[in-house]
Design brief:
The protein is an alpha+beta fold. The chain contains five helices and four strands, in the order αααααββββ. It has helices at about 1-25, 30-45, 50-55, 60, 65-75; strands at about 85-95, 95-105, 110-120, 125-130. It has a four-stranded antiparallel β-sheet with strand order 1-2-3-4. The longest helix has 22 residues, at about 1-25.
Length: about 150
């Protein structure tokens, strides 16, 4: 009887520890995601396809997407000067991150966009950019993975 009770207590504690580990998402990924956003901004500013290849996830690398397509998407309203992304809000779970932000230009914040990153190994790589929630979606690459909003 004691062995059975001990087994149930160990099983309960193991389940409790397992649940606790799932709910605590490490915050140390946020700086890495921010670095990926900054690297993407720099690639877009320079129009550097070679460096873009090192930032692109394996899914993007297999497609025909390049910096020119992203640049065209960003300036679909007409030519302009890109100075980065602003008002960034980052949400991530496991290996998918979503960055809701606005396109920044010398005139101030522009339209909303959502950038998706995928973690491959230790780095966060660009997966997709599309119009933000309040804009008509024009995805560069279809997003098949949704990120939980919490």
């Amino acid at each position: 009887m004691k062995v059975k009770s001990l087994f149930l207590v160990v099983l309960f504690l193991t389940a409790l520890i397992g649940c606790e580990a799932e709910t605590n998402i490490p915050r140390d990924e946020i700086p890495l995601i921010k670095e990926s956003v900054t690297a993407l901004e720099n690639v877009i500013k320079r129009g550097d396809d070679i460096y873009f290849d090192s930032l692109a996830s394996s899914e993007v690398a297999k497609s025909a997407n390049d910096v020119a397509k992203i640049h065209d998407f960003i300036f679909s309203d007409g030519p302009g000067e890109f100075s980065g992304f602003t008002e960034k809000q980052i949400v991530y779970r496991e290996d998918i991150a979503r960055v809701d932000c606005k396109i920044n230009s010398p005139d101030g914040p522009g339209r909303a966009v959502t950038i998706t990153f995928k973690k491959e190994g230790p780095v966060w790589l660009f997966k997709n950019i599309e119009a933000g929630q309040d804009e008509k979606a024009i995805p560069i690459m279809p997003d098949t993975t949704k990120v939980d909003e919490e």
